[in-house]
Amino acid sequence: MKQVLTIILILTIGGIKLNAQTKGKTKKTVQTDVVSASVLANGQKVYNQYCLSCHMADGGGVQNMNPPLIKTTYVLGDKTRLIKIALNGLAEEIEIDGEVYTNVMPSHGFLKDQEIADVLTFVRNSFGNKASAIKASEVKAIRAEKK
Amino acid sequence: MKKSVLIPVLLSAMVFIALYSFKDISNSHLKGNGPIPDADNAGLKLPEGFGALKVAELGAKARHLVVTPQGDIYVKLARSKEEKGIIVLHESSDGKAQVTGGFGNYGGTGIYLKDGYLYASSNQEVFRYKLDAQNKVIDPNKPEKIITGLKAGRQHETKSLVLDNNGNVYVNIGVNSNSCQEQDRGLRSPGIEGCPLLDSMAGIWQFKAKELNQSYGQGVRFATGLRNVVGLDWNQQNNQLFVMQHGRDNLNSSWPELYNEKESAEVPAECLYALKQGDNAGWPFMYYDQIQHKKIVAPEYGGDKKKEADSKFIDPAVAFPGHMAPNGLLFYTGNMFPEKYKNGAFIAFHGSWNRAPEPQKGYFVVFQPFKDGKPSGDWEVFADNFAGTPEKAAAGRADHRPCGLAQGSDGSLYVTDDVKGAIYRIVYNKK
Fold first, then answer.
1. Which numeric CATH code is attached to B36-428?
2. CATH among 1.10.340.30, 1.10.760.10, 3.40.50.300, 1.20.1530.20 for A35-145
3. Which of B2, B46, B225, B288 has its CA 20 to 30 A from that of B272?
């Protein structure tokens, strides 16, 4: 009984914290999946160090060179495909929401499973995006598949 | 007695009238039947006495352009629009232009006019179109394919071009790599030994203007060690090719232990090179550090940000701050602008991205004074505020990005923008 109470308490506090943080930006948080503030903070740290130089602070990318990470099918869509992009990089003649981008994305396989999970979760829940979190175990599974 | 007085009076009156009407003719491009600057100078910030108008806005990625004495403008588009890769416009007397047609269903950057031909490039080929006496393309559907089979990677794929006065075409073949790393732009990824990409990319190749279907076998690698060149021009004063290199990126993201974000934003320099046949500008083995004023060994090839590179690599003629992306170079030979601009270089800086998280820079046209074919004195920003506001420039979210440059026969300076396809015309209107 005591345990259940503590869990409820933690969840409520977590929810309030998240709500307070995103107030004014998006109101449709909570319920489906609660992304903890610490995951977002870690994700942002990884983003600033390894992704920002190409995809920019606002996630808007660079015209003709680096694609935006705002509501693209890659960011919001299939998790496996997204995790593979982070692990292996991307340099293909593809259209990303109607535009082509000429730069290459290097592999970020040197990041730890948790770092990849956090940064992708951060991307999926920033710049106006809203999508489920990615867990370290999912990254781990896909990394293992590769070998 | 009376007669002898009358004659000089009449004569001076005639001289006076003649001078006056001449003055009128020389200013006619500004009064009534000449380009009229927009009230806001098309949003640009210019030196005192200059004005600008927006000639047209194409809604397409306008790259390089040429303007004929007859008031036709040929603009090369990065990607063709409605199956037209070259857009043709005609100017009316107030300077505004209407699209009159288009041809050439291929994207690209390079376009140049010389001795009765229009030259234009896709990302792998160069075509030329014969012009009539009015500088109109005679048969837009039947160009001569003079160069073919040039390598084009995913990055630095455009082929800029210029001609000399001896029937040669110079074409940039940029390299599809940042610094010839084993893993392009990868973290601490080393350089590939000897960089084999240099055999067919990362240089300027020379071809014959009037021969068909030339490729690497028929061309000459005129200069090497140039990562990517977009802006280039032939200096008529000393009969020499000048190019603006796009310097390497990612010093911090690939080598965080050696370069902090600030250093990585500032260096390496964007370099203007004066080229002779056989020159080597050193990519990927070195880069030019405009703060130390030295050629520095690239970290991919054993550099530690201080070690100096082999002196066989050429020095730049001018070194500009990093990452500003020089996309247009033009030596000004016109008579409209004040004397100091004559034979100097205008450079269109497309604007940076690889300075993040530091503020972005560029999005302007710079003037570099020249004397006797050599840079002389400091460069200055000539036309600014293509971005719209300083904040938009700093964030890299520019409304317009300057790309191509051309000179009108009256001495106006034309600038393209490849965000919205604006074509600007800058005129001098001080009396």
1. 2.120.10.30
2. 1.10.760.10
3. B46
